[in-house]
Structures are given as C-alpha cells and as structure tokens.
Design brief:
Radius of gyration: 13 Å
Helix content: under 10%
Structural class: mainly beta
Number of helices: 0
Number of strands: 11
Strand content: over 45%
Length: 124
C-alpha cells in the first residue's frame, strides 16, 4: 500500500516555473515506477511524465518535452516535476501515481496508487 501526497501547485503567469512534489508513504517507494498525470476541466486524464525505479530513465508527453523534468529522490520517498515555460494550456489538476511495472507506462489503468492532485493554473 502506498499513499501519495502532492504539493507545489498554484496560480502563475505564462512563462513562469513551478516545481511539484509528491511524497510517498511506506518503505517500498523505490520499487515503483512513478508518473505524473494531469486532467484539465472537461478532458480525460493524460500522461505527463514517468520515471523508472532507479531514476535513470524518463519519458514525457510530446506537449511537455523540453519544458518539464521529472526526477525522484528515493531516500526521501519523493518524486518531483519541474515545470518551466508554463503555458495556459498546462492548466490542470496534476496527479502523481505509482505503478508496479518494470518500465515506464503511460496508461492510467496501470497505476494502482494515486494522490489527491494539486491544481496548476497558468494565466496568459
């Protein structure tokens, strides 16, 4: 069982940066693939970024590649999402999630554990 708590969201202007954090409970954090997802109002939840258990490989949605960076600190049971050059279309509720997988997966159904989400709003 893993419990996830996100933080770091807020209201920013286009071009600004934010760093989201997700702290996991339990002693098995390093055994999970971690992902960040987002859900804009009226839209489906979509994959944003994922990271392997050791943190040596990452994957990104095309829409955020080059602007967002996912990282993790297994000693702190924490995964981060650094978001730079934010755009109004990045506005969404951002979730972190944990998957018992051997590689990064982008399908929401593969993630068994989810946080409650943190809101990111980007004004133009």
């Amino acid at each position: 069982q893993v419990q996830l708590v996100e933080s770091g969201g807020g209201l920013v202007q286009a071009g600004d940066s934010l760093r989201l954090s997700c702290v996991a409970s339990g002693r098995t954090f390093s055994s999970y693939i971690m992902g960040w997802f987002r859900q804009a109002s009226g839209k489906e939840r979509e994959f944003v970024a994922g990271i392997t258990r050791s943190g040596d490989s990452t994957d990104y949605a095309t829409s955020v590649r080059g602007r967002f960076t996912i990282s993790r600190d297994n000693a702190k049971n924490t995964v981060y999402l650094q978001m730079n050059s934010l755009k109004p279309e990045d506005t969404a509720l951002y979730y972190c999630a944990a998957a018992s997988a051997v590689w990064i997966v982008t399908d929401t159904s593969r993630y068994a554990y989810w946080g409650q989400g943190t809101q990111v709003t980007v004004s133009s």
